[in-house]
Every structure is written in C-alpha cells, then in structure tokens.
Amino acid sequence: MAQISINHVTFCYEGSYDNIFEDVSFQIDTDWRLGLIGRNGRGKTTFLRLLLGELEYEGSIKTNIVFDYFPYRLRAEYDLQNAVDVLYELSPECELWRVLCELEQVKLDAEVLYRPFGQLSKGEQTKLMLALLFSQENHFLLIDEPTNHLDIQAREVVRDYLSRKCGFILVSHDRRFLDACVDHVLVINKNSIEVERGNFSSWWENKEKRDAFELAENEKLKKEIGRLQAAARRTGLWADKVEATKIGFDPVKEHDRFLNTRSYIGMKSKRMQQRRKSLERRQENAIEEKSRLLKNIETAENLKLKPLHYHKSVLIEARELALCYSAESEKPLFEGVRFRLEDGQCLAIQGRNGAGKSSIVRAILAQTAVDKETGINIPYELSDGDTPCAAGTEEAPQITSGELRVPAGLIVSYVSQDTSFLQGSIREYAEKRKISEPLLFALLRKLDFERVQFEKPMESYSEGQKKKVLLAGSLCEQAHLYIWDEPLNFIDVFSRMQLETLIKAYRPTMLLIEHDEAFIQEIGAEVLRL
Q1: Per-block mean pLDDT, blocks of 10 residues, the chain (530 long)
Q2: How far apart are CA 136 and CA 129, in angstroms?
Q3: How far lies 210's CA from each of 37, 324, 374, 494, in Å?
Q4: Which of 92, 224, 302, 509 is most buried, taking the most CB atoms under 10 A from its CB?
Q5: Of 145, 147, 150, 203, the residue nearest 170 (C-alpha)
Q6: Which of 459, 471, 472 lies closest to 514 in space, CA to CA?
Q7: Residue 117 in contact with residue 78, Cβ under 8 Å?
Q8: Based on the domain organization, do 218 and 262 belong to the same domain?
Q9: How many domains would you assign to the chain?
C-alpha cells in the first residue's frame, strides 16, 4: 500500500476569476476504492488532471505510483481498427492474456477483440477499456463517469466488476452505483475538501446530521447575538446616563448628593462600561463562531415549472409499433411495442443500448415541430406523405407496422443527450430558443451556477454545466410534453435531487430515457422496457 499526499495545492485556470483549489492538503491510500463527489464545476475532473500532471499548480502532489485515466482519449481512426489493435495503440506494454482474464470478469466475449472498434456498443467499449486499465499492474486508476450512456444491464456488470477491485478514484453521480463500488469518499465542498470512510449513503447520512447540527447552532447563535446586542445597548445607555451626572448637580433637586459622591458615580459608570465591553466581546465571539457554520451546506433551492395540460387525456399512443431506418432492412429495431402516455404521467423508456429507445423519441419528434438536436420549437414542413417532420432533424425512423399516434398541436420541450451544439454565450442561446433570459439565469443560479459563468462562452463549460443549460432551457418553456433523452448524464447528485423534487411537485407529462434507477423510483415513473 502506498499513499498519495496532496500538500498545499492551489490551482486556477488562466484567465479565471477565482481559484478552483486553494491551499488544499489531504492524503489518500492507493488500496482504497475512492468515490469523488461534488457539484458540477467544483473541479472533479480538474483534480484528476492535476494527478495526471496535465496542469501546472502551486504546492506538491507526492506519490510513487503511475496514474491511468478513463475514458481514454480515442481518435476517430480507431473506429476502423480491430479492438485488439486499439488496445496496443493505447497501451503498447499491455499483456493480452491479462486483458482476456479481465474480459471474462466484465462478461465480455473475447471475440470483440477482433471486431472493428467503431462497431462495438458504448457498453462494450466501456468494458473493454476498463479491462485494459485493470490488466496493468501498479497503476492507480482515475475513472471519470463510466456509466454515462450505459444501459441498466451494462451498469450492473460494471458495478459488480468495480466492487471486486481496489486502487481507484471513481467519479460518478449515480447513488446506487457509488454505494456498491466505493469504501471511501473524497468530497469537494464549497470551501473545503473532506475524506471520509464509507460510501455515498453513509456520507450523505452524516452530512445531513452535520447540516442539521450547524443549522440549529446557527439559529441558537443568532438568538444569542441578538440578546447580547440588546443587553449591550441597554448597558451602554445606562452607563452614558450615569457618566453624564458625574460632574455638576442641582442642590435643590438632588438634596441628598454632595461633592464627594463624584468618585462613587465614576466607579459605577466604569463598572457599567466594563460590562458593556464584556457583552460586546461575547457578541464578537458568538459572531466569529457563527461565521464558521453553514460554509459547506448545499442549498438546493426548489425549481419551478409551468406545464401545459392538453385537452385530450392521451398524448402519445403506440400500438404494435415496429420501427426501422431503411425500407430495405430485413429486421426492424423492435416489433409489437405498445404504450400510452397520458396527461400528467411520467414514462421512462429503458433497454439495452441499440434497442431503439432514442428511435421512439425521433419518431415522436418527427410528428412535432421540434428540432431534434437543439430542442427548439420551429415551424414544421410536410413531407410527401403529409407527415409533419421537424426541419433540421436527423433521418426519422420509418414505421413498418403498427401505429404511433401523436395529436395535432402538441407542444413539446425536448432535451437532447448531445451538448456539442452549445456554442457562444448563454444570452445568445436564450435568444435563439426564445426563452426568458432572466428566468433562464434564475434557474441556472438555483442549479449552482456562479454568476461569473454567465459571462463565459458555453464551449468552456464542463459537460455537467452544459447539460444544466439544456435542462434549464426546457424548464423555461411551457409545454404539454417534456421529452428528456438521458438528462442526468454528467449531472451532480444535488441537482438530480432538485429535479426529483420538481417532477414530484408539478407532475408534468414526461417521456424520459434514463437508467438511474434511484431517480426513476423517486419520481414514481412507469417503465417501458424494450
């Protein structure tokens, strides 16, 4: 067992307004299964890059081990190469027999090594890359959000695989995944970094207890400070009043006073002034103690939504539906799918990668006036078959049998799983999407956006921040139906909880593609499994 020692590390991106990390010090052991937790933009991926030595910083990071990072930086030409050749490109010193042993543990057949890498599913690629990482000895692994774009079955395999390993840092926002995989947590708070033994649930339970204690202490100190301020004011007034009578007196009105009482009054005034100063010192101490509280409490403000209600009870209905992308296809993506989406219902589509989840969404969007990429409502054009098709969308799948009913006049708000089209400023995005700029900014602030982010180009945002822009844009819109395609990719745990509260409070009609089981269960969504 070795240690990684972080000593007085300070880091700031060039041109940024404030430090990401400031005088940070802690130690971690290399045999831990460490979960890295924090809100989007707090510096989780930046911390991994500091360990890799990709960024310059002040302070020191001391260790004698080698770091390896997931996901690998893949080049476009890899898609045409066999997977085994890609492995040797990524790690020339890798030993194939070790990789084969790891492939068995991730339930991946060895034949994938001799298929073009680009033909592997996202789940197969993830498993293959993890097998390569863990096949190398004396490497400490930095695993950055491995569950993105993975279906439930692939998540379960990766979860079970990581739970049997050690010696890694795992960045994930899936609560159940973290609980199964980690035995320590490294938490990046607002103003500190803490290392704690346990998994996400044990840390969250402790955090709630600490937050409750600090809130109670804060309220107690607020009352104490108010009481001390009032007592100091009263004592000060009395002392000033007594001090004013020290010199001079009216012998008619104050017949019981004579010259040698002046020293008595002076002593009395002095004692009262000392009491006032004592009260003020106690007040200052209470204020200082209060200032240490609430620094790391995550205030997750409630989000708001104004969904529209359609005049019909059923918004989407599929009967014995089968889809394909080409009339010449021998086999459709799926057959015999039946579901109804009613007003106020939340339906989650789940299934293996490639099962056709996004194809159902594309088929629905093809009959509405929504751009599939950006989610912007636009005037639609009629195709030759008089089927409404959103301009600017990718090719929509064809219905080979059955039917898909989407009523006319349905207003849809769509969130794509792709964020690559986000460029320029947030103000330009609000103008293009025709949503209220102040409302968008207010929602982003509630999702833990700093004001300084509003002045930066969206290309500089983290993937989580980009996803929040899309979600906030959707929440700004009044729609009959909200379609969100893998909305939680890269989204931090606290924001997921905010979205859960929102959906439970407003019950919008929603169609989701999502694999976070805790989220689906919490919002009470019905599940369509392909």
Answers
A1: 90 81 93 93 91 93 92 89 93 92 93 92 90 90 90 91 95 93 93 92 93 85 79 76 62 56 69 78 76 71 89 93 76 90 95 87 84 52 33 66 91 91 93 92 92 90 92 94 93 92 95 93 93
A2: 12
A3: 17, 54, 41, 16
A4: 509
A5: 145
A6: 471
A7: yes
A8: yes
A9: 3
The answer to whether residues 345 and 444 belong to one domain is: yes
- Give the contacts of 445 (CB within 8 A, at least 6 positions apart): 451
Integer CA distances (angstroms), 330 to 83, 320, 337, 350, in order = 27, 18, 18, 24
Q: d(Cα 474, Cα 304) in Å, to the nearest integer? A: 11
- Rg of the chain on CA atoms, in Å: 31
Same domain, 42 and 131: yes
Q: What is the pTM of this model?
A: 0.78
Could you list the beta-strand ranges (E) of 41-105: 58-62, 66-70
Q: Which residue has the tokens 């912007």?
A: 376
Whether 490 and 434 map to the same domain: the answer is: yes
Q: Which residue range forms the structural domain that includes residue 216?
A: 207-291
Same domain, 112 and 224: no
Cα angle value 463/465/470 (rounded, 5°):
95
Secondary structure class of 433 (helix, strand, coil): helix
